[in-house]
Structures are given as C-alpha cells and as structure tokens.
Amino acid sequence: VFPGVRQAQWLTKTKLVEGLPPAVQGILDNPALGLQELEERAKHVVSHARLWDTAEVAPRREQYCPTLFENLIHVCRLMSGKYPSLSKRMLARNFRIAATWERESILLQIRGLSGILMNSMTPIPPVASKEEILATKEHVLETFYPIAPTIDLQEVNVYKELNDTGQCFRDGYPYSHPHTLFFLESANVRTDRFRPEQLRAKMLMFAFGNALAKAKALHGNDPKVLEQPVVVQSIGTDGQLFQFMVFQLNTTDLVSNDGVKNLVWIDSDQNLYERAQCVPEIKKRVVTKPAGISGFQPDTFKKFLALYLHGTV
C-alpha cells in the first residue's frame, strides 16, 4: 500500500509543500523576537524529562514524552510577558472531532480522539496568498490506480453525517478557534507507536478534520472556496523526533479533483536531541559515555516555539 501522507493528500484534496511556510519561517528568522533566549531553558527541559523525572534508572517513553511536551509548552508560555495575547489560549484534552465530506462518489468521515488541541481566541491568518491559492488549480493530485485510495479505510454504515468540533467549541466559548494539534506517540513498545510517516498522515487527517468542522460551523455545509481559509497546525513527537505541519483549508468543495486545492506544509523528522544517556557507560573503570543529553538541536525547539507564536507575532 502507498505511504500514508500521499493517501491523506488525496482524501483531503491537498497539495504538499516541503518545509515550513514563509509566515512561520519569518518568525524563526527574526532575531528581534529573542527565540534564542529560551534555548538553555529548553535544554534543561529535555534533561528534566529524560534524566531526572523518575526514581527509576531511566524514565519510560510513556512518562518522558508527555513530561517533555508539558515542559516545552511551559517554556513557550514564558513569551506571554512579551506578547500578552499568548495568554488567550487554552489546551483541550481528550476531545472528540467529527467531520464528514464527499470525495468523488465516496462519503468519508473522520471521527475520534484528536490529540491535544490548543485553542485560541483569534484564528491564525491564512499563510498562502490568494494568488498561491488560485495557483493550486493547476496542481494534479496523485492517483493510485489500480489501487483504490480508500483501500485500507474502515467501511461503516453512516447514519448521521456529523460535523462536530467537540465540546470545546460550543456557542459562547471564548477560545473558539483551533490553533495547534499535538500528537504524543508515547507508547513504550515501538510496534505500538505510529511510524513517522503514519504519524504525519494522522496529523494531516486530523488537522483537516478540525479545519473542515470549523469551516462548516462558520460558513455552512454548502461546498465552496473559502473567502477566509482556515489554518490549523499540528506537531507530533515520540519524545525525541518531531514532525511539524501547517494545514490551510482553502475549499470545502472536495468531490472533484478539479479546482482549488487545500495546502499543507510539512517539516519532517526533526530531532530535538541525538541521545539521552541516563547512566554513564563505564568500561574498565573509565567513563566512556558520561550521563547527559548529547546533540541538542536548538533549531527544532525554535520551530516548536515559532508554531506556538504563529498567529500572535
């Protein structure tokens, strides 16, 4: 079967762009924001999650992955002193999403637990211009003939076409815009975790599902090219390797392969650090590998922070 992201692109009528969009890259490249000021704190966070946050010799992934995430979010929140609007965010956990759409002659639905969602009082502005959106008309979506692109999807009887953004988006809720989804692949056994490619496909499907449900709540169920596209970000990690994604829903007219396509930017397989040595390695009474974190990658942390700041800075 073909790789997951390619299938997700067809299902969501989406064009892939490698790397981060200019709006996020601009945050990374702006020295005035002082992102590097938090590098040491981020390095400390990694050491805390991987080396110190347990009475055991070494923490298990199901423990250190969530700890790392919570601590990284805490470091990001330190920027709210400089940018007060960052305090107008809320994390929603264990919420369910449902979104239904038609693709060619197939009725599709995504539903289920949707990671951890950071909501905002204001939406992320579109990251692609109107010209870039119109240019997607020329993009040809990959087909998988003779394999059906729905070959491995679960087939069920749909009695109700749900489009539900979850309890966190009920009328009157102040944090009514989806901002960033976080997926923690924290299972200790490797076979129980999604592989990076599978994780990116899952991130794309749920970013699309949240954006589609929000667009239908705002603009109704009629298929259309959106005057104001909906942007939802996604970050996935196993506690060491990070996947970054920015998804822009340009159209809810998904039946045909023609016309405007949606857009996704993906920055894949970014290590936050190379290795965590929980106990020193000793050979013949000589320490050959001291305990500690090696190969910390500040750029990966800055990408995490840039996506957090996006829409505010």
Automatic annotation (TrEMBL):
Alphabetical GO biological process terms: translation
Keywords from the UniProt entry: Mitochondrion, Ribonucleoprotein, Ribosomal protein, Transit peptide
Annotated Pfam families: PDCD9 (PF07147)
Main location: mitochondrion
Superkingdom of the source species: Eukaryota
GO cellular component: mitochondrion; ribonucleoprotein complex; ribosome
Example of a GO MF term: structural constituent of ribosome
Subcellular location: Mitochondrion
InterPro entries in UniProt: mtLSU_mL37, Ribosomal_mL37/mL65
PANTHER family for this protein: LARGE RIBOSOMAL SUBUNIT PROTEIN ML37, MITOCHONDRIAL RIBOSOMAL PROTEIN L37
Record-stated family: Belongs to the mitochondrion-specific ribosomal protein mL37 family.
Protein name: Large ribosomal subunit protein mL37
Source organism per UniProt: Pycnonotus jocosus
High-level lineage: Eukaryota, Metazoa, Chordata, Craniata, Vertebrata
Gene: Mrpl37
